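Hey forum,

I'm writing up a methods section and want to include a predicted complex as supplementary material. The small molecule is fe (ii) ion. I've pasted the protein sequence and the SMILES. Can someone with a working setup run it? I'll credit the forum in the acknowledgements.
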Amino acid sequence: MIDAATLERTGAALAARSGVSAIWDLRVDGAGDADPAADRHVRHQTLMRAYQARYMLLPDAAPGGSIIEHLNRHYDPEAMAGLEGLRRGLEAELITPALAPARAAVPDQAFDAWADDLVRDLRAAAETPLTAWLADHPAREAHYRNFLLQSSADLLAEASASALGVIGEFGAPQSALFRILIDEFGYGAHAKKHSVLYRAVMRDFGLPEEYNAGWPLFDTAALELHNAIHFLFQNPRNFFLQIGFLLFAETAYQRSTRDHFRYLSRHHPQADARYFGEHAHIDLHHTRMVIDEVARPLVDQYGDEAGREIMAGAAFTRQAFDRAGEAMLAVGHAFDAAAARGQAVYAPPVFDGFGPGVSPRGAARLAASAGPIQVGGIGYVTDPAAFAAFPAGAWGRLTAGRA
Ligand SMILES: [Fe+2]
Ligand SMILES: [Fe+2]
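Reply by user p_vandermeer:
Happy to help. Structure tokens for the complex are below, copy them as they are.
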């Protein structure tokens, strides 16, 4: 296990290298004394920074100063090597323990029958829990804003993680994956790129749309999901697990995005819902492409062992999505309970003036005068004692400036 002093030193080095734009913000929170939940959160933040190092990132507006110097600083090879050196250890602590339960969840079925069942079951599934919950919820805008914010860890750079699994040389399935990838990138039409469509709905809910701007409010489950996806795609040994991820994600997405599209059309008709409408349509095709042009040919060529690994990747993905979704609902319920007691206010986050991040257990040790704590995109609790009752994976941020 990576010791706390190494983590603390890494955090200080990242803060020192943090750039002038939100997109180059490399900070993580300080390791939280003896609180295991805060410690786990900071480890996930650090692993996220290691994965983000693979991304080409430029700010929307020129930041002033020499652009070359900014890049030399952000992508400094010595500093990146140090972070990369921690990656394997963090993955071993945080992500690989989820592989055994995923493999254990794989049914004793041939690949074709399993894929048919998966597609049928996901299509027939009940409405997405979040949209079903919010349909009659008086504070639905605040909770939906939080959903958008937590999901933005991946979706504001949608398909960049999986793009890392497309490079190389591996036969006809590679070209099918590439065709899916270019759809994700709007077939080269920038306005249709999926991350650009996601920006539009973020904007309509009053959220910052630049990649990485929302990180201070990501809860542990959102970071875990982000890191689970990147663990798959930044390790080529996970190739068949990656295919399982794509198969599950494309299939689940055709259903959930239809629910989100309907939900937005009905309850937030002013919001740009193209991101969801586009996926409800195109992921029908992507599901078929992953199954017929990627997974099945790979199983035919490399045998049942490959098929079982693809199924394990799908189970790993399903479990990671389920954990993130359940954690978000649990935080939402805790916030509603605090609001009902008069201890929380639904409000969009104000991104300048954030203080340190805090876990519920950390909040229990703060004085009331420490001030309000912003909880994701939902709103703020008026006093730290109210945040102490939240689930362990919740993450808040002190907002001294907020009355
Ligand atoms: Fe997409
Ligand atoms: Fe897709």
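Some notes you might quote in the supplement: The chain has a mean pLDDT of 95. The radius of gyration is 21 Å.
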